[in-house]
Design goal:
single chain; about 1250 residues; alpha+beta; eleven-stranded mixed β-sheet; seven-stranded mixed β-barrel; 39 strands; elongated
Length: about 1250
């Protein structure tokens, strides 16, 4: 007779949730758990599986105890020589004894949970006395020490007969549907249970392995008859057979009960072995889902670890534990447990550790001496897997223990802070530049709104004021000797006046005012009122005689030739109605009218402002000769006063007047910082030249003669940005964005350096809105966090070879390989949305950066076309004017008055297009700043992870290759090409391409600082064991802008671990590429030509719920993948030279491959399969592109980054699949995870499924 623990009736293995929760992962104390890899010997493999168990129940009588304690006695037909091995009751303390009352008490919480979540009731529930989901084969329950009742025995038999019948049907159905006679293997799993202090039962599950198919085992190899045990082999049941579970059981430390209370270290854990039917066709049938109890092994924590001289939970080496299986059906069964120290935190500089990892002693918990210290990081998430394999050529059976670990990066927030510092400064410069430009434009359009005349003069404008007193009209015959008295028909006492500024630098007149002034007949010697009827202030631009914009002919004449500066002339147009003998309106579409009584007359007077500039004489009335434009004769005189002053005249300086510069150069603006030109540096260059940097100015000046002619033509056409647009843009866009960038910069730095604010509390990760290295996906619409990447983690997959020596069971674990990826959300500017509204009146444009930049290029071409049309129209106007219009002395033939509909409409369209180009350029610059800030944090984390892989750098000369050819960064995008996700792809594509501007160098704290590197731009990297600070230094202008990222490393680490080729300020330039393939239902809809959302309808729902709405664009994926392939093909040819001599001669740069539309090199042999996948990807989801791209990147020594919208579901599936591929390549490739060995697709998918469920 022997004691066999009976599992609690409240246990239901179906209710176990294999998904790790944050509560489980972060249960204190961190890093003190035990990882148990469980192996079953071949005696645990029962031939026939569930069917055998059910049949045995009919032939054997076995009585289990009614409680979970070891003190109750069972009666079984089991050989007496096995009882001693199976009896462990003498080791059981009194606290573990449960009475019959315990077993009959109300259901435990876990039992109630099982009832609530199990769905339909079992069809066999009326036969189950206990009401649980556990079947104990060969057993009936005892009651008060008496044998089972006849009714209970009958019910048990009937129940088992029904279960056997259903199982047989399922097996036959499975064979029929599979088309062959393959064996249906049942499933085994092991669960770990601790004692419930309330009930005394072992019903608190602390972990379970996966459900694994039993390995094939013939009856000849293991035939067990109770009373007569036979085993092929030594009879010990410890041969090379059996099975190892992939998912270890993790024992928390201290062990927590269901209420979160710590249990004593003198803990007993029962490991129950369960079996379930493998007939999957009826998987929803509760009878098939029922777990059958096979046996249990008991672990006494204190005794087992003390026997190995380990004081649990403080141990630092793996050990082996062999426990007998207390089982009637498998009396020779044994569980071998390989116990490992907690793998949540890798050893410093060990396998799986990265330079970007936080330090474990300070990063994840508050320090007693500093309770207000800000905790920035969440602890790593981890999961272990065990893979048995035959090691090397010796055939020794080993276990490959792998650790999947995701860790936050210490450099994500410092990168965002450092770059936002640069952006904040640059956007402030751009905002001030735009505001200054708006002020200058304001001066051109009249002075009524100018509040600071002194500032206007400081900006190179003259302060002028025109006063019109009256118009004195001559009698029609006055010039013929009349007495000058007006005729009786002349009754008008006012006249319409238009005042136009003829600038010396523009052919188009500026309208300063339109008004009416008194009109009187001229009477000789008559006194007229000198009180001004109209006063018009204005601020003309001072144009130096050497100014490139000075119109031809301005220096003609003796007076003009002596001038050093010019401010222009005033053309005063008078329109007189109902005056006999007047001329027609030359601006009328009808043309000039003939001489007739009552016909309106158009009159004109000119005033040369330059003659009165800084005049020392008192302001006196001037009478300007008014010319009848029809006859060219004098029609009267206009009484005016004029004052004109420059800054030099105001302060009584006589050393000359300064002319205004024709170009406003801005140094350090945002547009140049993010690697953009204005697209106005070529033949489209016109005024005002907003955001013109030094390099762009030099580019314009060095243009050829063809462009020079157009430059001169455009330079004479005034300004192509209006004051109304510019002031609105400066105040609403630039000033607001500059303020936002400044706030982000301050917040990011404060988060790194400041303690907790008063009242600040820690929230769950998904609710946090303070700047942190981890940014939850729910914060996508938070503007203050738009510079920080989403869900950025270093995902490491480290492997150790574990062997157990015979016969002492000593365990050795040797690190053998590391596989790394970075997972994240797409670097995109979600806050700004994916519909660019543009300026008022423009049609909105949907999409992200890539589409916006395409749109920007199209607008630039439109500007060029309109400019050419305007130039042609002006030329035609001059030709017609020279043939039809007569002039008079002093009248300008170069200025074009308003009223020409064709020229006015063309000029208006040209100004509108220029303003559109200006607005979209700024919007793209802001968007690029936010997106690049995210992408740079991701890329730098990836680079540091690979620099930390000491074994990788030792095996090959990767560091030398990186310094010569750049560090290959391959992004694998999983977004669908529709709706807002298409916009995210377009944002990410540009942000990733911008990484080409980045070079990284390692420095130490004692390295000499660059002259241009200010110490105040050194951003601290907190909670890092070896990284101290980083600094980003930009250089160059526009498209030639580059960034040098300096990473300060601990002196000792730098000396011992940084490869020589990466020392001494040796820069490593990033070589970024992006492959993209949608993998969800929306992408399937795109490929099928369907769109599962409303098209072209305005959005009324929340931003977060519209990602699938929009017109699909599958072509963008093909274009991106071909572009990425050209770059990777060029890199492969540089790193691994081919035998083709032509390929050796042809070296393609990243920039050339980016700009090209054709593959200019032969396909590198390493990339043949990838190229085939891309060619065949049109119209379908070809996941092989991402598989081969990531595989090729690893073989080329690069890193991989995987992203989807939020960096959660799709990225998890992709990285899990890649890990499964890597482990199988490693096992099949003699320890090389990047070998090209053939792998079993089914095994990969099976292991990926296990990792996905349990990881």
């Amino acid at each position: 007779m022997s004691t066999i623990p009976n599992p609690s009736s409240s246990i239901n293995p179906n209710t176990h949730d294999p998904i790790w929760t944050l509560k489980k992962q972060y249960a204190p104390p961190l890093g003190k758990r035990i990882v148990l890899v469980i192996k079953l010997n071949d005696a645990c493999i029962i031939p026939g599986g569930v069917d055998t168990l059910l049949k045995r129940d009919h032939n054997h009588k076995i009585t289990y105890s009614t409680s979970s304690s070891f003190s109750s006695v069972v009666t079984a037909d089991v050989p007496t020589d096995l009882m001693g091995e199976m009896n462990l009751s003498e080791r059981t303390s009194s606290s573990m004894i449960a009475t019959a009352d315990n077993s009959s008490s109300s259901p435990s919480s876990s039992q109630q949970y099982a009832t609530a979540t199990s769905g339909r009731s079992s069809p066999f529930g009326f036969l189950n006395n206990g009401g649980g989901s556990v079947s104990t084969p060969f057993a009936t329950r005892s009651s008060g020490g008496k044998g089972p009742s006849k009714l209970a025995t009958l019910g048990s038999k009937l129940k088992n007969q029904l279960e056997r019948g259903v199982t047989s049907i399922a097996v036959q159905a499975q064979k029929a549907t599979s088309g062959d006679q393959k064996d249906i293997r049942d499933l085994l799993t092991v669960g770990a249970y601790i004692q419930n202090p309330r009930t005394g039962e072992f019903d608190i599950c602390i972990g379970m392995t996966e459900r694994q198919e039993m390995p094939p085992l013939s009856l000849e190899k293991n035939v067990m008859n109770y009373g007569n045990v036979e085993h092929n082999g030594s009879g010990s049941g410890t041969g090379d057979g059996g099975m190892t579970f992939r998912i270890p059981i993790v024992i928390p430390a201290p062990i927590m009960d269901e209420h979160g209370n710590a249990v004593s270290n003198n803990t007993v854990i029962q490991f129950h072995l369960w079996m379930r039917s493998g007939a999957a066709i009826f998987a929803k049938n509760r009878a098939l889902r029922k777990y059958l109890f096979v046996g249990t092994s008991t672990l006494f924590m204190d005794q087992q670890f003390l026997s190995q001289q380990i004081h649990w939970p403080k141990f630092d080496r793996p050990v082996s534990i062999v426990l007998p299986l207390q089982s009637v059906v498998a009396p020779l069964g044994k569980m071998t447990m390989l116990a490992f120290p907690d793998t949540k935190f890798p050893s410093l500089c060990g396998i799986g550790w990265s330079l970007s990892d936080p330090r474990t002693d300070t990063a994840y918990s508050a320090i007693m001496s500093s309770p207000t210290r800000r905790i920035l990081f969440h602890p790593p998430l981890d999961q272990n897997y065990a893979f048995p394999y035959y090691h090397g050529g010796s055939g020794t059976k080993s276990t490959l223990l792998t650790t999947e670990r995701v860790t936050e990066s210490t450099v994500v927030l410092p990168v965002a802070a450092a770059f936002m510092q640069l952006v904040s400064r640059a956007s402030g410069i751009s905002a001030a530049h735009a505001m200054n430009l708006a002020s200058k434009l304001e001066y051109f359009h009249g002075g009524d709104t100018v509040n600071d005349p002194m500032k206007a003069m400081q900006n190179g404008h003259a302060q002028c004021q025109l006063e019109i007193i009256h118009y004195l009209r001559y009698h029609p015959h006055h010039m013929a000797g009349s007495d000058g008295m007006g005729s009786s028909s002349t009754r008008g006492n006012s006249i319409h006046v238009g005042i136009y500024l003829q600038r010396p630098d523009s052919i188009f007149e500026n309208c300063l005012a339109k008004c009416t002034v008194p009109c009187h007949p001229y009477v000789e010697n008559k006194a007229y009122s000198s009180f001004p009827a109209v006063s018009v202030p204005f601020y003309p631009r001072i144009v130096d005689k050497n100014d490139s914009r000075l119109l031809p002919g301005q220096m003609v004449g003796s007076v003009a030739s002596n001038r050093s500066v010019f401010v222009g002339k005033l053309r005063i147009q008078l329109h007189e109605e109902h005056i006999g003998g007047g001329g027609g309106d030359v601006f009328s579409p009808m043309g000039p009218a003939g001489m007739a009584m009552g016909v309106p007359r158009n009159l004109e007077a000119l005033l040369d402002i330059d003659s009165y500039l800084n005049s020392s004489e008192d302001k006196s009335v001037l009478y300007l000769n008014v010319i009848d434009l029809m006859t060219g004769s004098s029609a009267g005189s206009l009484g005016v006063t004029i004052s004109a002053h420059t800054l030099e005249g105001m302060v009584d300086q006589f050393n000359g007047i300064s002319g205004n510069s024709d170009r406003d150069i801005v140094e350090g603006g945002l547009i140049s910082l993010v690697g953009m030109d204005t697209l106005m540096e070529d033949d489209k260059a016109c005024h005002p030249q907003c955001d013109l940097n030094k390099a762009a100015c030099e580019k314009i000046q060095s243009s050829g003669q063809t462009h020079e002619r157009k430059f001169r033509q455009l330079a004479t056409m005034g300004e192509f940005l209006t004051f109304d647009y510019m002031i609105r843009h400066a105040e609403m866009n630039r000033a607001a964005e500059s303020k936002s960038f400044l706030e982000k910069s301050v917040k990011y730095i404060s988060a790194l350096t400041s303690p907790l604010a008063e009242g600040e509390v820690y929230l769950p990760p998904d609710q946090q809105r303070q700047p942190r290295p981890f940014r939850p996906s729910s914060s996508r619409m938070d503007q203050s966090l738009s510079g920080i990447g989403f869900n950025v983690h270093i995902q490491s997959f480290s492997m150790s070879n574990v062997t157990m020596a015979e016969p002492n069971g000593e365990v050795t674990s040797i690190p053998v390989s590391l596989f790394q990826n970075v997972t994240c959300g797409a670097p995109a500017d979600h806050f700004r949305g994916f519909q660019y509204k543009g300026i008022e009146g423009e049609k909105p444009v949907s999409g992200g950066l890539r589409r916006l930049e395409t749109r920007r290029a199209a607008v630039a071409e439109k500007v060029r076309s309109l400019q050419n049309q305007l130039i042609d129209a002006v030329g035609n106007f001059y030709t017609m004017q020279s043939q039809t219009v007569e002039t008079y002395p002093g009248r300008s033939v170069r200025h074009i008055p308003p009223g020409n509909h064709h020229i006015d409409s063309l000029r208006s369209a040209c100004i509108s297009a220029t303003q559109t180009l200006h607005a979209i350029t700024w919007d793209i610059a802001v968007r690029r700043a936010n997106v690049f800030s995210q992408a740079l944090g991701i890329a730098l984390s990836m680079y540091l992870a690979h620099v930390s892989d000491f074994a990788k750098l030792q095996k090959a000369a990767w560091a030398n290759i990186w310094t010569k050819h750049g560090f290959l960064i391959t992004f694998e995008g999983l977004l669908s090409a529709a709706g807002k996700e298409l916009g995210m792809i377009e944002d990410a594509a540009v942000g990733i391409s911008m990484l080409r501007m980045v070079s990284v160098v390692f420095v130490t704290s004692d390295s000499p600082l660059n002259a241009e590197s200010a110490t105040d731009r050194c951003v601290p990297i907190v909670d890092s064991p070896y990284l101290r600070w980083l600094r980003i230094t930009p250089s160059g202008y526009g498209k030639d802008t580059t960034y040098l990222v300096e990473v300060c490393v601990d002196v000792n680490y730098y000396a011992q671990r940084i490869p020589p080729s990466l020392k001494n300020m040796s820069p490593v330039r990033f070589y970024p590429i992006l492959y993209q393939m949608g993998v969800d239902i929306r992408q399937w809809g795109v490929n099928a030509g369907a769109n599962f959302g409303k098209k072209n309808e305005p959005s009324t729902t929340d931003e977060m719920d519209e990602d699938e709405i929009g017109i699909p664009d599958n072509d963008v994926l093909i274009a991106l993948n071909y572009e990425a392939f050209r770059k990777m093909n060029a890199y492969a040819h540089n790193v691994y030279l081919c035998e083709d001599p032509e390929d050796i001669k042809t070296s393609i740069s990243w920039e050339r491959a980016h700009a090209s539309t054709q593959i200019e090199q032969s396909i590198h042999p390493m990339l043949t399969k990838l190229y085939d996948y891309i060619r065949s990807s049109a119209g379908k989801m070809e996941h092989g592109i991402l598989d081969e791209a990531g595989f090729a990147s690893n073989r080329l020594g690069g890193g991989s980054g995987i992203f989807c919208k939020s960096g959660k579901d799709r990225t998890a599936m992709q990285v899990t699949f890649k890990q499964a591929q890597y482990i199988h390549r490693f096992l099949n490739g003699q320890g090389n995870g990047f070998s090209e060995s053939n792998v079993d697709a089914k095994k990969i998918f099976d292991d990926a499924t296990i990792m996905r469920v349990h990881g």
